[in-house]
Structures are given as C-alpha cells and as structure tokens.
Amino acid sequence: MPVRVGVIGIGYLGQHHVRIYSELEDAELVAVVDMVEKRADAFAVKYGCEAYYDYRDIFNKVDALSIVTPTTTHYSIALDCIRAGKDILIEKPVTVSVKEADELIAESEKSGCIIQVGHLERYNPAVLAAYDMVREPRFIEAERLSPFLNRGTDVDVTLDLMIHDVDIVLSLVSSPVKEIKAVGTRVLTDKIDVAKAWIEFENGCIALFTASRLSPEKQRRLRVFQRDSYLLLDYQNCEIRHYFRRGEEILSDTIRPENKEPLKEELRDFIICVEERKRPKVSAVEGRDALKIALDITKQIKTG
Q: Tens of pLDDT along 108-127?
C-alpha cells in the first residue's frame, strides 16, 4: 500500500512537494491544504486530490504530511500533526527556537512519529559524492549568494540561506563547536540580509560562511581543504573539482555525479523512512543542531 500523504502550504516550495508526491510510486497524494481556497482548489484539480483549508481536517485521511508554511507556524502545526500520530517532513528551519525544536523532538519520541527536516542540500548529488572524499577537513569555506527575490524575507539570511551550509558543515566535521564570530547587517529588509560567520571546532577545523540575498547572481559553493587535497563543490552545476598532491605534483580531476532532483530524492527518502520506520538522515535532532548554530550566529550579529 502506498503511503497516503498531504501537503500543508502550497506556496513556492509547497507546489513542488505536491508535484513530486504525485509522481512517486510509493506515495499517494491525498490532499493539499492552503488558507487561500482558490490556490488549494486549483492544485487539487491539477493533481487529482482533495482540497482543504484547515490542516486538521485531513488527519484521518493521511499517514504523513509535508509542512511547507512560514517558519513561525512550524511548531504549532507540527505539534498538532505529531499528537494526531502523523509522520511529518518540516521544511527548514525546523522551528524559530531551539526550545520549540526540543519540544517537538520530545513529543515525537513519545508518539513514535518520524520528523524529517527539509535540509535539501543533503540530497544534492555533489554533496553525496563529497562525503566519500572528505577526510578530516582543516578549513571549510561556504558561499551562498542569491539575488533579492523578496522571498524568505520573514527570517534573517542566516536562517534562510546560511543554515543550509551550517548543516552540511556540521555533518562533515565530527566535533563540537568551540567558538563563533559573526558580522552582518540589514540592507533591504528589517532582517539581516548579508552575513559572515567564522566557526572554530574543538578539533581545530575552521569554517567560514558567507550568505547574502543581495548578490547580482546566484552562487552556491563549498571549499574543503584537507591534508594533501582540496575540494571545490559547486552545488548549482552539480560538480566537484578535486585538487590533490601526488609526489611533487598537484593534479586535478572533475567529478560530475548524475544530476538528480534533490527535492525528489529527499521526499523519496522520507517515504522510505515512513514505510520502514527508519530514522531520517536529517531528523529533528540535526535540524535543531543546525538551528542552534544559525541562531547563535544571528544573535552575535545583532548584539555586536
């Protein structure tokens, strides 16, 4: 039997959740939910499912749900879903506070419900390939730049963009954070629009992060420096340039893994976790850990 799924929130990203669930063999798209009734109706017709305007009305119709709503609503919606016994995928950031994330984790442990957090870059084919190549990184540099799209501006750029790279770096560096330094400023919104952060880990690795939603062009890059080699990962072009030392020579090669759609791989993995009762690659715990660092960076910027 396919997993019966619903999508709560059919904005820019939620639309893609709806589309992909309708394509997955092991999922049955049962319902879409949006406060804008015309939007819910239109997508229900397009994808052959039911339209609802209150997510609580679909609890008896679905096994699992995607929550693709503004971050400020994640906690309350997720709590209702978990208490109704539903597995959930919450788009990042998991919540607006670490306390809220911890409460969701506690509730999910009591109920046995799965929480997966939508840290999409974990499913980027280039990132997956890089995991096999990273060995004890010493210095990591992450750049995530976007043009101003007037989307995601309800949160600081640290929570909108930088948190992706924070999550990736935390998964690459198996060591507690020792120190954080950060600077940034507001430019076009009342939130932080550009930020830089410097994180030192207890094992000596250092990571430098840059995030901006004021760039003339989109850039997504990660550089990893380790003994005798250097990786340049291009998220957008799905490729890794690998520079390495062999004897007295510096050689290089380029790895281009099969370019699969990360969101489709993420949602497919979510359905597998629901079916097999597996812990997600990015559970609420990993989502909480990335959120804590992103909030610490934000606080340091705001307090100077």
A: 999 999 999 999 999 999 99
pLDDT band at 155 (very low <50, low <70, confident <90, very high): confident
Contact 126, 240 (CB under 8 A): yes
138 shares a domain with 108: no
What is the domain extent for residue 172?
122-260+293-303
Residues 38 and 74 grouped into a single domain: yes
Contact 250, 228 (CB under 8 A): no
pLDDT tens, position by position, 176-219? 999 999 999 999 999 999 999 999 999 999 999 999 999 989 99
- The 10 Å CB-count burial string (b at 16+, else e) for 278-297 is eebbbbbbbbbbbbbbbbbb
Cβ–Cβ < 8 Å for 171, 286: yes
Letter string b/e over residues 118-146, b meaning 16 or more CB atoms within 10 A of that residue's CB: bbbbbbbbbbebbeeebeebeebbbbbbb
Return the ∠ at Cα 157 (arms to 285 and 120), rounded to 5°: 45
Q: Determine the Cα–Cα distance for residues 204 and 193; give it in Å rounded to an integer.
A: 29
Question: Does one domain contain both 130 and 86?
Answer: no
247: pLDDT confidence band, cut at 50, 70 and 90?
A: confident
51 with 179, same domain: the answer is: no
Please check whether residues 11 and 138 belong to one and the same domain: no
